[in-house]
User: Which sequence fits this backbone?
């Protein structure tokens, strides 16, 4: 078996060969390292390489096998970590100059579980600065490049994790997903990715974006490989109350059952209109394949889709601003991403608006429960567009809305979602199908995705790792505010520069005079967009169900 064949193996197919001695962990590791050294100067997937650690771990895995001990389905598997997850003794930069010298003294529980399951850690991967954005183009360490066309973005914010697996640098990787940051690079890079139910994996030891949205999740070549990785990292953590107390179910328990008898919802609103025609065509073909296999398709409406995007901003904004306030006070000029503007503007989102948005999430969860009483899962394209050129993404926030169009609404209600490749466009670029389902039912989503993947094993294709065609024409989706039908200013009064300056001073945050005008305009635009939430009737939405969804059952959720 060639070195490249080892590097592009599936985890599920390779580990039995490692366990029986046919392949050595050190062989697999060196195959991955050789590809990193040959191609990562172009791809730029890694911020920190941990080859010495990986070689030591691989030798330990070989010694364990010699003693008759196998750690399980990740024994000797080289994996990569998004560089916002702590690994003791190595920097956690979050893609930012601000944290480039930050070296944690402990390892994140998700990473520790991965190592205990037998994984070998290759390094820390690139990402959109502080995970705010969907392209991966805005990193202090430069953008990662898509192995299918190195002129194009990988998607983000887990950009390096997607690029590393797609390029054969690692057999799997961990990312994080707030509004789609596992599913998006998985889709653009032709991989499987899973965002588990909120609370499925501990967030401890991870640089936060939105604490009530963040989810650590896997990217891998196949759906089964992603499920294996999720199995390894899932479970209770006393340091993260959202993880609960119960041990996770077997995410591969239903993987071979097929889809006959399942009812799958295809949204009639929001998710399909205006999409890139090739992407839409590939996703619809995947939906038809599941119908051919015996699933029953029904048309559904996802009522929270538009305002779910608004609630996302109203919650993630203040949660991210709380983390970033010390940096904004002292090191504002060191940010490289326009995401910093969002962090700073979010300092001025009123507290009542944050509470309103969390109550809105309770309403949206009730709407989701009503929908999932009718269907077993919902099918949408993962991303509405083909991967854009990096040159068009260097202001990553401009592309955030279209790229996260289909993923963020499901993050808002905390449900699990699986991304599976569903083909390639005429330019040779991957497209993806998103499968979202009930809280706690990742195994069912894995079952559905694996059924499609068995019929269409797109994962067996390998990227050229070379430049390709010119970028597609610019494309846009109307903003959530324009779709909401709510007036632009709503009930959020405009703030003056003097008010913004006074509020900033009260927070001990100095705003440079030359930035005050732009900040004031940005704050007013942001707060005006959030006024769309004023149209909701939230009188019966008193409990923040969004923070405790891991064991939520649709039959126990009140009617919307």
Assistant:
């Amino acid at each position: 078996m060639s070195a490249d064949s080892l590097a592009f193996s599936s985890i599920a197919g390779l580990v039995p060969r490692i366990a029986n001695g046919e392949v050595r962990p050190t062989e697999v590791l060196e195959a991955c390292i050789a590809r990193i050294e040959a191609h990562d100067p172009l791809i730029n997937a890694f911020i920190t390489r941990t080859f010495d650690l990986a070689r030591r771990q691989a030798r330990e895995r070989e010694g364990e096998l010699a003693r008759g001990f196998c750690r399980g389905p990740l024994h000797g598997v080289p994996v990569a970590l998004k560089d916002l997850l702590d690994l003791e003794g190595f920097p956690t930069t979050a893609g930012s100059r601000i944290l480039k010298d930050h070296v944690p003294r402990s390892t994140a529980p998700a990473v520790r579980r991965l190592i205990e399951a037998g994984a070998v850690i290759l390094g820390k991967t690139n990402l959109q600065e502080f995970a705010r954005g969907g392209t991966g183009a805005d990193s202090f360490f430069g953008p990662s490049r898509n192995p299918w066309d190195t002129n194009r973005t990988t998607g983000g914010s887990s950009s390096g994790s997607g690029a590393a697996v797609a390029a054969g640098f690692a057999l799997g990787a961990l990312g994080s997903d707030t509004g789609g940051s596992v599913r998006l690079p998985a889709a653009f890079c032709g991989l499987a990715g899973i965002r588990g139910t909120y609370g499925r994996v501990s967030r401890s030891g991870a640089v936060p974006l939105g604490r009530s949205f963040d989810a650590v999740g896997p990217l891998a070549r196949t759906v089964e490989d992603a499920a294996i990785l999720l199995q390894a990292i899932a479970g209770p953590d006393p340091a993260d109350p959202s993880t609960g107390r119960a041990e996770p179910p077997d995410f591969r328990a239903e993987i071979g059952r097929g889809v006959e008898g399942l009812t799958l919802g295809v949204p009639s609103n929001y998710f399909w209109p205006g999409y890139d025609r090739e992407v839409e065509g590939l996703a619809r073909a995947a939906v038809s394949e599941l119908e051919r296999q015996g699933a029953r398709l029904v048309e559904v409406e996802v009522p929270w889709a538009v305002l779910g995007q608004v609630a996302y901003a109203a919650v993630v904004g203040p949660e991210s601003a709380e983390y970033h306030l010390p940096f904004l006070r002292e090191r504002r000029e060191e940010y490289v991403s326009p995401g910093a503007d969002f962090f700073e503007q979010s300092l001025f989102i009123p507290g009542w608006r944050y509470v309103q948005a969390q109550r809105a999430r309770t309403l949206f969860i009730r709407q989701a429960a009503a929908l999932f009483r009718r269907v077993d899962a919902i099918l949408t394209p993962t991303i509405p567009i083909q991967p854009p050129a990096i040159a068009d993404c260097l202001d990553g926030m401009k592309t955030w809305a279209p790229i996260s169009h289909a993923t963020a609404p499901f993050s808002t209600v905390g449900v699990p979602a699986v991304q599976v490749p569903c083909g390639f466009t005429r330019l040779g670029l991957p497209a993806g199908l998103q499968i979202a389902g009930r809280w706690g039912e990742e195994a069912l989503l894995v079952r559905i995705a694996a059924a499609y993947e068995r019929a269409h094993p797109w994962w067996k294709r390998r990227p050229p790792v070379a430049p390709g065609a010119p970028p597609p024409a610019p494309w846009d989706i109307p903003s959530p505010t324009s779709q909401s039908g709510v007036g632009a200013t709503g009930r959020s009064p405009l703030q003056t520069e003097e008010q913004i300056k006074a509020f900033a001073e009260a927070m001990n945050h100095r705003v440079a005079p030359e930035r005050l005008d732009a900040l004031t305009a940005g704050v007013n635009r942001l707060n005006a967009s959030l006024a769309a939430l004023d149209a909701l009737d939230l009188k019966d939405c008193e409990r923040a169900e969004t923070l405790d969804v891991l064991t939520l059952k649709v039959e126990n959720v009140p009617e919307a």
Remarks:
- Residues 305-331 form the longest helix (27 residues).
- Residues 221 and 459 are 6 Å apart (CA to CA).
- The domain at 3-304+366-460 is CATH 3.90.1300.10 (Amidase signature (AS) enzymes).
- The chain has a mean pLDDT of 92.
